Amino acid sequence: MTALRVTNLTHRYAGRLALDNVSFVVEVNECVAIVGPNGAGKTTLFLRLCGVLAGTPGQASVNGHDPADPKERKRLPESVGIVFQNPDDQLFSPTVADDVAFGPLNLGASEAEARTRVDDALRAVGLPDAGDRVPFQLSGGEKRRAAIAGVLAMRPAVLLLDEPSMFLDPRGRRELIGLIRELPGTKLIATHDLDMVLDLCSRVIVLDAGQLHADGPAATILADEPLMTRHGLEVPPRLKT
Amino acid sequence: MNLVLRHNPIPDSPLARWDSRWKLAAFFFAVAATTCLNRLEPAAAALGFGLVLLVLARLPVSWLKVRLAAFAFAALPFAIILPFTLDDGLAIGLAVLARGLAIGCFVLVLIGTAPLHVTFAAAHRLKLPGLLVLLTLLAYRYAFLLFDESRRLRVALRVRGFRSAATRHGYRTLGHAIGAGLVRGADRSERVAEAMRCRGFDGRFHTLQAFAARPRDVVFFLLALAAFAGLVAWDRL
Questions:
Q1: CB A98 to CB B202 under 8 A?
Q2: CA-closest candidate to residue A104, choices B208, B91, B51
Q3: pTM, entire model
Q4: Which 3 state secondary structure label does DSSP give A12?
């Protein structure tokens, strides 16, 4: 079953091509990594998939919704959740509980339902007692977890994670990998952390200069040294012979 | 980092347990009534009332001192200048000072006895527009981050040998730093807006903050109402 379909997706910023005819399909419960150098179009792709950036209808379908269709965009947060690169951009409420409840309340959940979702989501990310804390006071790893909880509380079918291991220390990174592995649903991870990709993703898509250059099993793609070098990447140490 | 408004933890007191909606309503009434006082004696009584509330709030003296001094500093010029410019200037000037300090006491009681987000949620329940509440809370939330970023920027300037001085280079560097701050701020605001839209934001303010008023919350409010109505009546006699 298809969770996400991208067909000839193109996006321009003031005439500059950021995504050029990108096409791929992601099946339900699949965990796919999008890798590529800076400026490859990974974040643009995510912003198009969650409907933040407007585009031509018919180029993408997330859980059956077209993110470019203004009528469907309102219902999109129920289907797709995005965790941004910097959790400080995402944690804008005065307390963690209010922040996690933000999405469900916007989607029309009752206060009781929102509270249940907050408790469930915070428990799922290992922060069961952080509800009353102020986001600013959380550590980097806790902020990342709280940001993930905010998205999990909306129970999206597809989860987009943009550079999830950025700014994390090794322990925080390790814990995050464990957490992402446990998360249900379809996951798309844009990252430079290729070691993490090997731990989490069965499939890798290589994006460079807005174009899709490779799509295949993680171990095969990431071990392909010429391909990796050509696109500003490196073979992860554990795949080097 | 410690922002001016922040005080943690909030000491347990009858005022901290007072339902924030009733407390806020009483605060508005107290400030309005104090503003209306013209004579020195009722203004001094309002100040006395404010000081009693501060004692009841059990807020640390060190936290109060600086903030009360700021209110005193703002009102002090009136007490100094008016005696030389008006016939009854001393009494009027002292009344202004007393009113300023009294309002300062009420503000400190309000922000010192409940987390700011709870007070704002209470304001929303009292029909303050949700968008205004949300914008204020966002400004408060990101003030912390801006302080942090400005500190990092200061460090970055220092480690590269910059010392602020009234020179062309100093002003130019300061201008660049402020410009960088503005650009980063604009960038961040866009990203925050994107994150909000991704989570279904539709312009309404939602909070999980629950309020439950007890009879004594209403009694406190009525007592405050009576006390300040009495002060206004006394002032008008």
A1: no
A2: B208
A3: 0.80
A4: strand
